[in-house]
Hints:
Blueprint: H1 2-12, H2 21-34, H3 37-49, H4 56-64, H5 83-95, H6 101-117, H7 120-131, E1 137-140, E2 156-160, E3 165-176, E4 183-189, E5 200-206, E6 212-217, E7 225-236, E8 240-241, H8 247-258, H9 262-281, H10 286-316, H11 321-346, E9 358-359, E10 363-364, H12 365-375, H13 382-393
Parallel strand pairs: 1-4
Antiparallel strand pairs: 2-3, 3-7, 4-5, 5-8, 6-7, 9-10
Helix pairs in contact: 1-10, 2-5, 5-9, 6-7, 6-8, 9-10, 9-11, 10-11, 11-12, 11-13
InterPro entries: Acyl-CoA_Oxase/DH_mid-dom, Acyl-CoA_Oxase/DH_mid-dom_sf, AcylCo_DH-like_C, AcylCo_DH/oxidase_C, AcylCoA_DH/ox_N, AcylCoA_DH/ox_N_sf, AcylCoA_DH/oxidase_NM_dom_sf, Mycobact_Acyl-CoA_DH
Protein name: Acyl-CoA dehydrogenase
Family: Belongs to the acyl-CoA dehydrogenase family.
Amino acid sequence: MKSLNKIILIRGIFMDFLFTKEQEEFREKVIALLNTAEIQEKRKMIKKANLDSDPREIYRILGEQGLLAPNFPSEFGGLNKTLIEAAILVEEMSNSGIPEALHVLTSLIIGNVILLSATKSQKEKYLPQLADGSKNACILYSEPKHGSDLSSLESRAYNNEDLGTYSIFGRKVYSMKTHISDYGLIAVRTSEKQSKYDGLSLFMVPLNSEGVTISEIPSLSDESLYEVILDGVVVDNTCMIGKENDGWSVINKALSVERTGLDYFVRAKRWFDLIYTREINNIPTESTLIELSRLRCKLDASRYLTYKVINEFNRLGAVDESLSAISKLYASELACEVVWKGHELRGVEACLKDNHGYSELYGSLESAYREAPGLTLSAGTSEMMLETISKLRLTI
Length: 396
């Protein structure tokens, strides 16, 4: 009886935030659509077809309902909702087994950069395509010598002033979902300024442009990474997002959205659900239930931090850099902790792809074991997050 009570405690502990009635209704609408037979059948098909799954068909169904980018204005294919609804969508996609990474890149990160920094004509061009699922986008920042230190980027864009175009040369690495993206948001140097942070610009580059070569990079995780070579890629000057040489401020807006912790939290939650379902079905010991309860409480904290950052961004259009660093650091490190604990509890069985270590809905713990370390590197390493926090939060 004591163990049963603990099981009930674990199931009920996950924190309910004060979402509005309209937000809860939106969540129910999303859940109902994601769990339709059509979408669940497509989910099963894409997961069977490829380890690095292609969810674009599902995204188009969501786009037809106006649900793919709920925070976009209605004139651009959205629902005039807030970033809270956008985060709810990501949560429920993950809970329903729908791959969310491409959506986070396309709508939540790049879409919001366009909303905040693009011209009206650029919004009219890009946002409806992203909102209906007909086009997707990836981020092209990192280079072979420069990952976290974006101020040292070497890729260049040369202004062909007489033609109204730019020619882009460079090499980008470790980008995600590039093979199924239509655009790349690329950071390049457009001039040599005294400060390394000046002279950067951002462009939305069509990835089918002449001079773009995309190659797969061998990766530890099931999700492939890609190298993108840009050899004299010519883009119109209307492809520049923000002002010339002012790309650093635009990048910071993008990183604020990327570092909400949402993408990392939903992975941690999904992997916890995988472990929890398996352990409960195996009649857990009391010590196992205690370990699961501890993890669940940490997930509550991560979810709280995530929504705190999102709510601040939603209200102000910007976010405290140290707060987003705290959320990203906590969520990514927690995702690793969840996976390590899963292997500790189940031992060698957790390393098996099938049977003991696999859930048709939540995936493979073996796969998560290979993916988790990369979360502490993407969007800024844990060490850089700690440096940011120490600079902005600690007083000596």
